[in-house]
Write a structure and sequence with these properties.
Number of helices: 8
Shape: globular
Helix content: 40-55%
Strand content: 15-25%
Structural class: alpha/beta
Distance between the termini: 14 Å
Strand order of the largest sheet: 2-3-1-4-8
Number of strands: 8
Order of helices and strands: EHEHHHEHEHEEEHEH
Radius of gyration: 17 Å
Bound molecules: adenosine monophosphate
């Protein structure tokens, strides 16, 4: 998006698991022609290499633990380097990359290095841990195309994937034990990230306990300011 000041836009999205970050990120990417960079998707892709790190990622992620910051930082900087080769890019969205304080600091450094620091918006999609737990235990993923079907609104009614017709199953880390772990990690590691942005006056908080449409509307409102 080139906003009113015609500056390229970087959006950093954060929120508890199940808050709808991915869904909103993809809507925003489409609307403003932004590149979408999701940490979860990138890690799942990286796992497929089947090397030492690939195998270890499967274990760590299935348990609901966070991946070390150096792995995240390496994956992200590789992507940011590649983005520099795109001449017509309007900006990008970072979905889920800042879950540990070290990551937030490294990402700020990377954005400076790659000269993206001028128009960075940090958006927190907020839901309670009870809501998060409830959504994650019930959400599904398409066995064939990997599409994540959130437990919100009309998606609750779906019996098969609305994109490819594939059957819907639960994601390996959406089991109660792993969900509990992810929520603990959020409290322990990601809350300090939220405070980090808050202290700098950069945090934009959005109520995530609304329909997908209303969350999106609220985000658009704050981006227009
Ligand atoms: P997601 O698909 O965003 O729910 O992420 C799935 C899993 O990937 C998380 O539960 C973590 O194990 C890992 N992960 C994703 N992003 C990060 C990050 N920024 N830092 C550490 N681990 C991450």
């Amino acid at each position: 998006m080139r906003n009113s000041k015609n500056k390229k836009l970087v959006i950093i999205l954060l929120g508890p698991p199940g808050s709808g970050k991915g869904t909103q990120a993809k809507l925003l990417a489409k609307k403003f022609k932004l590149e979408y960079l999701g940490s979860g998707d990138t890690l799942r892709q990286r796992r497929k290499k089947g090397d030492f790190t690939g195998k270890k990622l499967i274990k760590v992620m299935t348990r609901g633990e966070l991946v070390p910051s150096f792995v995240i930082s390496k994956l992200l900087t590789d992507k940011l380097e590649k983005l520099k080769n795109l001449s017509k890019i309007s900006g990008f969205i970072l979905d889920g990359w800042t879950r540990i304080l070290t990551e937030a600091e490294l990402i700020d450094e990377s954005l400076d290095w790659y000269e993206w620091q001028k128009n960075v918006k940090v958006i927190l999609i907020n839901i309670s841990s009870r809501e998060s737990f409830n959504r994650l235990t019930k959400r599904r993923i398409c066995k064939d195309c990997g599409r994540l079907i959130p437990w919100v609104g009309e998606f609750k009614k779906l019996k098969r994937c609305d994109k490819c017709g594939g059957s819907l199953i639960s994601r390996a880390d959406d089991k109660p034990k792993a969900i509990k772990k992810r929520l603990e990690e959020f409290k322990k590691e990601t809350k300090p990230v939220i405070d980090y942005y808050k202290k700098q006056g950069r945090l934009i908080k959005i109520n995530g306990k609304q329909s997908i449409k209303d969350v999106f509307k609220d985000i658009l409102k704050v981006l227009r300011k």
